[in-house]
Amino acid sequence: MSPLNLDQPNNVPNAGPMDRGMAELIEKLRHLHALKAKAVREEDYDVAAALKGDIDTLGRAKEAIAALEHEKKAAVQCENYARAKQIKQQIYTLLNSGYETEMRKKGAPPVSTKRAADPTVPAPVAANTIDNAVKMPVQPQYNVGRTPSVPSKHDETKIGGRGYYDVDDALKNKDEPEGNPPSANQAGPMGLSEDGKGAPWERKLNQLIKKNSSEEGGPAPLDRDAVSLDTTYEKDFGIYCAACLLGRKGTFREAAIKAIACSEGFKALTSHTTTAADTLLIYLSSNGHGVSDPVAGVVLASCDAVTALVSSRLSDAPSLSHMSTGMSMLVPQLVSRLGDANNRVRESVEAVLVRMARSSFGSEKIVTALLVDPDKQGKKPAGFRAHLSRIKLFSTFVDAFGVDRKARDNALDVNAILSKVVIPSLQHSNGEVREAAIKLFAKLVVLQPKVAKPYMDSIKPAQQSLVEAQIKGVKNESDDSTDDDDDDSADMETDTVSVQSRRPSLAAKKPTAPIPKKPAAQTPKKPAAQTPKKQVKSAPPSRPSESASATRELRTCQFCGEYNASFTEANLDMHYVRSCPMLCPCPLCDQVTEICTLQKHLVSECEGRDLVKECPRCHEAVRAEELRTHLAAKACIEAVASHSICPLCHARFKNSTAGWRTHLAKAPGCANNPRKYDGSGPVQ
After folding, report:
1. Within a domain: residue 58?
2. Where among 119, 135, 151 does a domain terminate?
3. What residues make up the domain containing 663?
4. Secondary structure class of 494 (helix, strand, coil)
5. For residues 306 and 359, what is the distance between their CA atoms, to the nearest angstrom?
6. CA angle 506, 511, 512 (to 5 degrees)
7. Rounded to the nearest 5°, which phi and psi values hold at 585?
8. Is 677 helix (H, G, I), strand (E, B) or coil?
9. pTM for this model (two decimals)
């Protein structure tokens, strides 16, 4: 059986009822595991044993569902739809039986006593329920009509009598004499009372919540049937705070988290319970709450709360080793918010992950979660922001922990980063993602050349040149930072590689090279007393020629090789977009792409890649609806490794950069290229 997956498929808009049911079952298991760990820490072994029984029951249900899913897929493949329908109903039965498992809390009475006291409490799942559900015959289902509702009789209440319109009387507690305030468990017209049950710690916490909230009145009481684990939160945080945390208003949730995570609130909680931090982490990592909350303000407050726990800002908080289980549950939820469209949320999550990695919690679990491709974590592909944040975090971790595993135990694995992060990101359709991947690639090559350089063969030639240019820039920056001559370092500027934002598919075009120094006559010199003689260095004799070469390189198109003294950054942009004979706009997404890699771009990187399929014979992109006809005709040119085929005119020549330049950038040029071979512009 596959390992327990803690992703949340019920967040996917297209998830079916079966997926949502399975997700709820997994969420129930996750909370039961957390509660059992908490009970073990408190040495409440009766509760731990009861929770273990529930976990085993739900685990068997999950295994049975997985086996039935496999059998259902086999039945669908064999087109035995009657059997598939039977299996589907059996799976629904198992899911419904799994939900009947009652979560036991510390101090709760035995199940039999609790059911005797409250008949609404569901019975525990019997051990043979799963086996019976699998073997039971499928019962026919009938469409049962809805029970007709009783017509309202409000208008039949006589005037002056007690009925629907007596709002004041309806709000009073019938069990209490008139004139007494509502009990702590009952909501008044403005919501729950701030006093809670009257304990000093609870009143202090509720006052802080009220201070942080802009809402008038208190939260509405909880619906016991709709909210799970509310008694656990009520036990540790109180009735008022639990209603805020699990209520519908985001302002109350945000205010409650801020109150718990501040010094005064946490001190009040620790005077009442020793498990406040564990319960808070369970809430922050639960689905739909805390870090996963849809309200941005709640997510920001959750990040601040985690920061307070990690940074020991709360003097009464337990050690990170004691909270490691809760922190581990929180990591996947934080990683899933890296692609958030809200910049503040994304930056806060990144800061929390960096702080957690630098703390005694360590970076191992965070790095493991980041190595998973965001596009493979759910049915819906992640946005480009998730990939950008992921690369940014890895770059930060490389700077902080290094890549030499012999020198540091927490150093990062270069092979894992390159194979699972950098190389896939270089194939991404977004230009910013590719630019960030190129910079990280260059950094890894500089730090671990023996390990990183073999990966250069797996990327495009144009990307290889960009990585090499970025490596030069990193080395030049390193040389400039160690230069002892303050005047020279002030005049030296390093031009880093950057992706052209106008066309995301076209990666950085500017080779990295230092800008020539200013003449000595224009550089003001410092007094001799401020500049010791030992710091004065004579420039190497080859420096002028290097500067001239670098200047010429900046004025040369790296694709077609054209040199033009008027090529500035803006003019080069215009050259790439309109004139360079080696480039063309993609016919599907209109991004400027190298002609030599156009076919690969269409089938792997293009935003419209779903419209085309790659021919296995000629390796060209063919419209998806025409692929069968294309294969049957067998009229395409079979692809060979030694030769290239122009996608514009289908001319065949040797596979090399020189071959492509000869065909596209020298007379007479490609017959079907809309740009002139000499780079003078479009064909008239």
Report:
1. yes
2. 135
3. 594-684
4. strand
5. 12
6. 125
7. -75, 140
8. coil
9. 0.50
